[in-house]
Specification:
The complex is a heterodimer of chains A (737) and B (137).
Chain A lengths: L1 H19 L4 H21 L3 E8 L4 E7 L1 H24 L6 H20 L3 H19 L6 H32 L4 H6 L1 H6 L3 H15 L8 H4 L5 H10 L3 H14 L3 H22 L5 H22 L2 H32 L15 H15 L5 H15 L3 H23 L15 H16 L4 H4 L11 H19 L1 H6 L8 H23 L4 H23 L14 H19 L3 H21 L3 H23 L12 H24 L6 H13 L4 H9 L1 H22 L10
Antiparallel strand pairs in A: 1-2
Helix pairs in contact in A: 1-2, 1-4, 2-3, 3-4, 3-11, 3-15, 3-19, 4-5, 5-6, 6-9, 9-12, 9-13, 11-15, 12-14, 13-14, 13-18, 14-15, 14-18, 15-16, 15-17, 15-19, 16-18, 16-19, 17-18, 17-21, 18-21, 24-28, 25-26, 26-27, 29-30, 30-31
Chain B lengths: L3 H24 L7 H18 L2 H8 L3 H21 L9 E5 L5 E5 H25 L2
Antiparallel strand pairs in B: 1-2
Helix pairs in contact in B: 1-2, 2-3, 2-5, 4-5
Classes of the chains: A mainly alpha (737), B mainly alpha (137).
């Protein structure tokens, strides 16, 4: 129950945030940060618990939350980093007028992310997964006036939502294969799932879903673009928490789907590629945030690789590396934001010598960089060593090599992002940073040391010294190489080849541009602004649909019933209406056309009278009168030129005859296929006793079929509102009567 | 171009037509008529008045804006439907009571009449909104 309250509390915080922001930027941020700070304490100390309720009993859909070892780690990261981000954002966005919206979205994200890691079943997880996609979209696109921000937000949303669909499909297939939604139950059915025919599609769908969120190749391109978001968002979502959601799902699904060659193959291949692509591209960048973003992609690839390896040691290594990364990457992002805030510059080739003006930030950055480079005695070192050992133990030499190469690049990237801006000759001026901006960086960087004692949280021992081993040698070698590159590698860095021209990002842009231009083309053709064309398309579509249905059902056409009541009067009236219609078509003056339409309308009203429908006749006559008034008003404001000629009279005539003929045919067929007994008898019998009225038509309108009438009058008001808004768009000027 | 004849006639015709429209509304349940016809007659009455004078006069004659009128109409129609729900029956079930009228017997009043009144108001509001928007463009 507490878990439910916690998540609900997060959403409540989100709703209250805009109001809380009125207390001043810094104060409100510290106050709001108390919530995630308190939650961190809870998650660290609380016992394991679970909560379950049937959300949709008819479908057996559950809503369950559970706190176990894995979710405890993730929840602590989410709330701990979240608290620091709240404080940081208070200072970072001090001058931002839309702070309320920002904090609301941030809290919303935090609650959704907690939902993802605390979910006890696939349904709950998916719902919160999508909520994180939405809040990420809102946060990336926070500066929505900038087109780059909008595009980046769209890109992230589309890619992760596509993954979300895939994830949903995978979960549904899994449920139908295994018969359960909750993760605990699924884990017990592991063997049956592996042998099931749909195993491969399930694995592929779920992994694709996880991989889009965790920026694995080929879905990684949204993450660097997401750096358009304000830096606190980049630090929180796109390094410490949201991108780890995919990793979380992969770990959760390991006991359910893991252990097969397919699982291992996909994870290892994708993880390795992502590691190498991300690590390599990180050193090509000049923007601090992009260096950090690409190296995050690389680390996510490494984590995926470790999950694919599947051994308990690999999993332990993954946990350690993940925790270390959350600490150092978050710290580096916050420092980058502080540097940006102080100097207005984010490009590594233009920054230098800031240590004097920003000593605290420099210290935090150095510690974080050391953890990223895998230097002892930091958690990053422990994670790196554990990864080497786990992979080598399992005999995965290629993977070990890839991790080694990746580590070299990570060291280089750490040097670029954290060492270069602070040392060397000063290039830009920096003003002092307020407490909130460096506190987060310091705390997160120190996590590299503090979490050395984090064994209860990780569930695995954290030891710094494993003896003189190959892993140690590899680590030292990668550090040395990376350090050398940092110091001497600048000319090389400038000449390294960039991303290939056939990258997934190009594919995305191409597809998106193609969709947009197709939409524009289609709109230009079908909705070109001429009322005539709209009517043409409507009638043609109607004709097509009805004729196809008629031809396929081949009904019989009975004319005897229809011609029963036709006498000289009806024929004469019909001829008058026909003559009026032809007159309306031929006349050039608009007023004459209105008169012609009026005659048609009056003729139709007389038909109603002849066939004993006085209500309809009355309404028809009144509508004709109304139409005359409205037409006059419209024509008054049109130019005085005569009615233009119909540009294509023959084709329009043919279409009109076809439409009219089809409607007539449908009516005749409908008469021939009477229901026995006809529904009109039902209404006539019940009109007085149940409807208390002798006018059957009206009783049907307001009693038997009242719901239809309610819909009709609603449509009437919508039409009126439409006319109103269309006409009132400009300045008002009354036409004299 | 204002016509004195039209203005004088409109001033008399407006209340007569409005009365007629309410008559049509009420009688609709047993004789030809009903909410739609009644609403249209009332709208045409206001339009005639607007033609004879101007839209400001017509708005004054209507007393309420078209927005208010059709909103009231939709609310009336919906609440007529909800009345049946109060007795636990589905939405839009008709409920009737017989009201004795002294020496003239009883008349039965029911939610369908209320519904028809809602239709009546909606028609007036919508048609007048369309007409006034066109006129005041």
């Amino acid at each position: 129950m507490e878990l439910l309250l916690i998540i609900a509390g997060g959403f409540v915080l989100s709703a209250l945030a805009p109001w809380a922001c009125r207390w001043g930027p810094r104060r409100s941020a510290w106050i709001m940060a108390a919530v995630p700070a308190g939650l961190t304490a809870y998650f660290l100390a609380a016992p394991e618990s679970s909560f379950r309720v049937l959300w949709v009993p008819a479908l057996g859909l559950p809503f369950s939350l559970a706190l176990d070892e894995l979710s405890r780690l993730f929840s602590s990261i989410i709330t701990g980093v979240g608290a620091l981000i709240f404080i940081y954002s208070g200072d970072y966005l001090r001058d931002e007028p839309n702070r309320g919206r920002f904090f609301a979205s941030l809290a919303f994200f935090m609650a959704s992310m907690l939902g993802v890691v605390l979910a006890g079943d696939a349904v709950t997880l998916f719902v919160f997964w999508e909520l994180t996609s939405v809040s990420s979209y809102l946060l990336i696109g926070f500066h929505h006036e900038k087109p780059e921000s909008r595009d980046a937000a769209w890109m992230a949303l589309l890619v992760t939502s596509l993954g979300g669909l895939s994830l949903l499909a995978g979960f549904i297939l899994l449920q139908s294969a295994a018969g359960a939604w909750s993760f605990d139950e699924l884990a017990t059915r592991h063997d049956a799932i592996l042998r099931h025919a749909a195993y491969a599609p399930i694995v592929i769908l779920i992994l694709v879903g996880a991989m889009t969120k965790s920026a694995q190749v080929p879905f990684h391109f949204w993450l660097p673009n997401a750096m358009q978001a304000p830096t606190p968002v980049s630090a929180y979502l796109h390094s410490a928490t949201m991108v780890k959601a995919g990793i979380y799902v992969m770990v959760r699904m390991s006991p359910v789907l893991g252990g097969t060659d397919l699982w291992e193959l996909i994870l290892c291949v994708v993880g390795t590629s992502t590691l190498l692509v991300g690590a390599y591209q990180s050193v090509l960048q000049q923007d601090l945030k992009l260096i950090l973003a690409y190296s995050t992609v690389g680390v996510l690839g490494l984590l995926t690789l470790l999950i694919g390896a599947g051994t308990p040691d690999a999993r332990a290594a993954m946990i350690l590396y993940l925790a270390a990364h959350a600490g150092y990457k978050g710290a580096l992002f916050l420092v980058a934001g502080a540097v940006d805030h102080a100097t207005g510059e984010r490009r590594v080739d233009r920054l230098g010598g800031l240590a004097r003006k920003m000593p605290v930030a420099a210290a935090a950055a150095l510690v974080a960089a050391a953890s990223m480079a895998g230097l002892p005695p930091l958690l990053g070192f422990v994670g790196k060593e554990a990864s080497f050992e786990a992979l080598m133990e399992d005999g995965r030499w290629l993977s070990t090599g890839a991790v080694w190469i990746g580590s070299i690049f990570f060291v280089w990237a750490a040097g670029l992002a954290a060492v270069r801006p602070f040392f060397g000759a000063p290039t830009v001026d920096a003003h002092a940073s307020p407490l909130g901006l460096w506190l987060g960086g310091v705390v997160l960087a120190s996590m590299g040391l503090v979490l050395l004692f984090g064994e209860p949280l990780f569930g695995t021992p954290v030891s710094l010294w494993h003896g003189w081993s190959v892993a140690l040698a590899l680590g030292a070698a990668s550090w040395a190489a990376g350090a050398a590159l940092t110091v001497k590698g600048e000319p090389l860095r400038r000449r390294l080849p960039q991303a290939a021209s056939w990258s997934p990002e190009r594919l995305y842009s191409g597809v998106r541009a193609g969709l947009i231009s197709f939409a524009e083309l289609q709109t230009r053709v079908l909705q070109n602004g001429l009322l005539r064309v709209y009517l043409l398309i409507t009638f043609a579509a109607f004709l097509l649909a009805v004729l196809v249905a008629l031809v396929l059902s081949a009904p019989r056409l009975e004319l005897s019933q229809a011609s029963k009541d036709i006498g000289a009067l009806e024929i004469g009236l019909g001829l008058i209406v026909l003559a009026a219609a032809l007159f309306t078509l031929r006349i050039r003056s608009r007023v004459g056309a209105v008169v012609g339409l009026g005659v048609i309308g009056a003729g139709v009203a007389l038909f109603y009278v002849l066939f004993s429908a006085p209500d309809l006749a009355m309404t028809q006559v009144l509508v004709e009168v109304l139409a005359v008034f409205l037409f006059v008003l419209v024509f008054y404001s049109m130019p005085r030129t005569p009615q233009p000629r119909d540009p294509s009279p023959v084709s329009h005539a043919i279409l009109s005859l076809l439409v009219g003929g089809t409607v007539a045919a449908v009516l005749l067929i409908a008469i021939a296929h009477q229901f026995r007994p006809p529904v009109s008898e039902y209404f006539v019998e019940r009109s007085v006793p149940e409807g208390h009225g002798r006018n059957v038509v009206n009783v049907i309108l307001v009693d038997f079929r009242a719901l239809d009438t309610l819909g009709e009058i609603t449509v009437l008001t919508l039409a009126a509102l439409g006319v109103f808004t269309l006409l009132r768009a400009g300045p008002r000027k009354e036409t004299p009567s | 171009m204002t016509s004195l004849i039209l203005q004088t006639a409109a001033r008399f015709l407006l209340p007569l037509l409005l009365l007629f429209s309410i008559f049509l509304l009420y009688r609709g349940h047993n004789e030809p008529g009903g909410g739609f016809s009644g609403g249209l007659v009332a709208s045409v009455a206001f339009i005639l008045y607007a033609t004879a004078y101007d839209t400001a006069e017509a708005r004054r004659a209507m007393r309420l804006s078209p927005w208010t009128i059709f909103t009231a109409g939709l609310l009336t129609a919906t609440s007529a439907g909800l009345a049946g729900m109060a007795a636990g029956r589905p939405f839009l079930t008709g409920a009737w009571i017989d009201v004795p009228l002294g020496g003239m017997g009883t008349i039965s009043l029911g939610t369908p009449l209320l519904f028809d009144a809602g239709v009546y108001l909606t028609v007036i509001g919508s048609v007048m909104m369309i007409y006034l928007s066109l006129r005041e463009k």
